[in-house]
Amino acid sequence: DDVIYPKRFRQVYSQRGVMPHHKGKRLHFRGVDRSDYFYLSDSILYIETDEGGMHSILHTADESVEIFDKVIDLAKACPHLFLRCHQSYLVNMDYIQQVSKQFELITGDIIHIRQRDLKTIRQIYLDYIEGKVKHQRVPMDEERNAKDVPSATVK
């Protein structure tokens, strides 16, 4: 049996305050340097279109890699992983620290928001955060409710 291993597999660990979750989907990207890059989706901060529009730049906590994939294609392929907040940007919503007329990531990076869709994009982000909080609270509430139920005692 022949097994083909990728040239590089990178799991990005924190050096700028970004903690790895190790729960992300493994994604493959083809670099403009002809290398294969593999990242866990939760290690990607954001992806932006390069100046010429022919390639994209993938940003993690530790590095930036120029890839062949275009933002529009990545947005279609991974709509549940990243928010397309601008024609040139896909952002991982887990790393957004502040929202105004733009997103500020926990690393200090600024991501532009398409101004004509500002209200909609902000609402998508807020719904994502609320859904995440509700999802995280459910087990806690169930555990709390189970503890509040009096157990049968023998007298």
Topology, pairings included?
Elements: E1 26-30, E2 36-40, E3 44-49, E4 56-60, E5 64-67, H1 71-77, E6 83-86, E7 89-91, E8 96-99, E9 102-105, E10 110-112, H2 118-148
Antiparallel strand pairs: 1-2, 3-4, 3-7, 4-5, 6-7, 8-9, 9-10
What is the radius of gyration? 20 Å
Report the span from N to C terminus: 66 Å
Rounded mean pLDDT score: 77
Beta content comes to 25-35%
Number of DSSP-assigned strands: 10
Description of the molecule:
The protein has 2 helices and 10 strands; from the N terminus they run βββββαβββββα. Helix content is 25%, strand content 28%. The strands form 3 sheets. The chain has a 5-stranded antiparallel beta sheet. A 3-stranded antiparallel beta sheet has the order 8-9-10, with no helix packed on it. Strands 1-2 form a two-stranded antiparallel ribbon. By secondary structure, it is α+β, with helices and mostly antiparallel strands.
Keywords:
five-stranded antiparallel beta sheet; 2 helices; globular; disordered C terminus; 155 residues; disordered N terminus; single chain; alpha+beta; three-stranded antiparallel beta sheet
Give a brief outline of the structure.
This protein has about 160 residues and is of the alpha+beta class. Helix content is about 25%, strand content about 30%. The strands form three sheets. Strands 5-4-3-7-6 form a five-stranded antiparallel beta sheet. A three-stranded antiparallel beta sheet has the order 8-9-10, with no helix packed on it. Strands 1-2 form a two-stranded antiparallel ribbon.
